[in-house]
Write a structure and sequence with these properties.
Length: about 210
Amino acid sequence: MTTRITRRAAVTGAGALLLAPRLAAAAPAIGAPAPDFALPDQDGDIRRLSDFRGRVVVLEWTNHDCPFVRKHYNSNNMQGLQRLAAERGAVWLSIASSPPGEQGHVTGPQAKELTAARNAAPAAVLLDHRSVAARAYQATVTPHMFVISADGVLRYMGGIDSIRSSRVEDVARAEPFLRDAMLAVIEGRPVARASTQAYGCAIKYVDA
């Protein structure tokens, strides 16, 4: 049987154009309960979002072959955010949704190797090879970021920062949307910009 793959966004030039996803599921909404999911991690253990109720959770959709993702890992921006989250008691979950045969696909052992090689510090890397979580959150690009408060409510969704490029030198001068939102949620403050436009490489979905 042939697996059909659908691209939910398009990348052009230095940035990404988000296209309206053709998804039947209700779109995730700021202030609404975050969709639960159950996915295997890099060790094969099943992780559920609901397992982390009582703690702030950051979701990072990732693809190690994507230049926009590499921008934030090569600059150590992503690793710094992961460690900041851990220091403040939050849970950071990296989600790899690329299906087999597509750019960015990883197995559990490969995910562990990448984490070590990049000196990354997520609480876990989750393997979403059937697009279950990506579809629930309507994640369109990598990186696509979400912040969930300790009561399980979605508080932020969108881009990691304000400059839609793949240039490492732009990280330092960009407005850090994700960092600001994450710290606001951890500290119990309102998120100033709860929804921004994500940019990056298109996530490939397995058709439902």
